[in-house]
Amino acid sequence: MSDHVTQWLGAYLDGELRGALLRQVSNHLENCDHCQVELDEMRGLSALLHEAAPVGDFLPTERFVANLNLNLPRQTEATQTRKVVEIGWWLIPAGVIATWVFVQVTFQLSALLMTVSNIGLFGDSLAWLSLSGTRQTAWFGLLLNTFGNSAGTLALINSIDLFIQDLTRHFFWQAALGLVYLAWLVRWWLGQQNQTTTAGNFSRS
Amino acid sequence: MAIAQAETEAALIAKAQTGDRSAYGELVRQHHQGVIDVVYRMCGDTHLAEDAAQDAFIQTWLHLPSFRPGTSLRNWLYRIAVNAALDTLRRAPKTPFVDLETLAMPDPQAGPEAALLQKERSLAVQKALSSLPEASRAVLVLREYGSLSYQEISSALDIPLGTVMSRLNYARERLKEILTPDFIDMEMEYV
Q1: In chain B, how many domains are there?
Q2: Which domain holds residue A191?
């Protein structure tokens, strides 16, 4: 009989095969003496391994627990430190989100107030807001004196200004937010991995 | 029954995570024999196995606060135990690997011939296990003595499922080569 299923016999013996592969191996074993012998040898090996279990000379469980209890270091301080670090780590994305919300609200509120001021809805009560506008005017005037008062130059300066504003308002903050959140996510994932690896590799260092 | 036991273990873990030594002691009682089985088969020496088991339980205690509820404590513990056993072996002086005197205490109920055969078997098995590469030995020990599924071994040792199967196949083939025909043929008669 060709196409033996030797490589699957271990998994078959351990009950790890499912579905079509399980049926294939079962059917094959019914007709293949070679694989059946292999399977019997594996069963024999497993029985031998279990039969050769050590006997005696280990500390009884209660005594082991008592000895262990004497050697257990304090866990509380490590726990508290870990909790503080975990809380601190959660504060990072929360802080970034709060900053982003603050900046966005400030931008939108400023735009609203400037619009209201331009309309003249509140008269001179918002005159202090025009201070930045004056600076802008002076800066804009300097630009015009430098590069000329042509329609093309004005359009170009206007486009650059709008582009920078859009970049700042809509892209930069969101990109920064995304990057910081991504960094936090990576750190969190590493922390989860750490649970399964750190303890397991505790004395590798 | 199993659900009740799982809930009990979860409750004990929760208490132990807050520093409750008594709850942790109960967890140790529940897993002591399993850990001993694993580390002994990795070390092949009762004294080294005791040391490794203690190291494993201490490290588990220290890292318990970061243990995620809902995952298997046994798998996590066995992973720590395997690494503790390997570290203990590396620290241990290069003495004969197998503890000849304490390896297999013959069954006093058996006759002298059967007792001798039992001791020979145990000695041969432990020597064969010790001849395996560490990676393959760890997989075989977790499967045969820890009774972990392939998926659990994969998770515990952080290796792919295919690697678990290939290492297990390799370990079994090697053991068959070493132990056949002296013992396996005899076992097959009784299986």
Answers
A1: 1
A2: 76-197
ipTM of the complex: 0.77
How confident is the model over B56-85, as pLDDT tens digits? 999 999 988 888 888 889 989 999 999 999
Q: Which residues have C-beta within 8 Å of that of residue B88, sequence separation ≥ 6?
A: B39, B43, B48, B51, B52, B55
**Domain assignment of residue B60, yes or no:** yes
* Domain match, A80 and A175 both: yes
Claim to verify: residue A33 and residue A89 sit in the same structural domain: no
Residues A49 and A113 in one domain: no
Shortest Cα distance, chain B CAs vs residue A101, angstroms: 33
DSSP notation for A9-47: HHHHHTT---HHHHHHHHHHHHH-HHHHHHHHHHHHHHH
Instruction: Give the separation between CA A28 and CA A38, rounded to whole angstroms.
Output: 13
pTM of the entire predicted model: 0.64
Instruction: Tell me if B168 and A10 make a contact (CB, 8 A cut-off).
Output: yes
Quick one: angle between helices A61-71 and B21-43, nearest 10? 110
Q: How confident is the model at residue A131 (pLDDT cuts 50, 70, 90)?
A: very low
- How many A×B Cβ pairs under 8 Å? 171
Which residues of chain A make contact with B46, given a CB cutoff of 8 A?
54, 57-58
- A205 assigned to some structural domain: no
**Chain A nearest CA to B16, separation (Å):** 9
Query: Which residue in chain A has the smallest CA separation from B36?
Result: A58
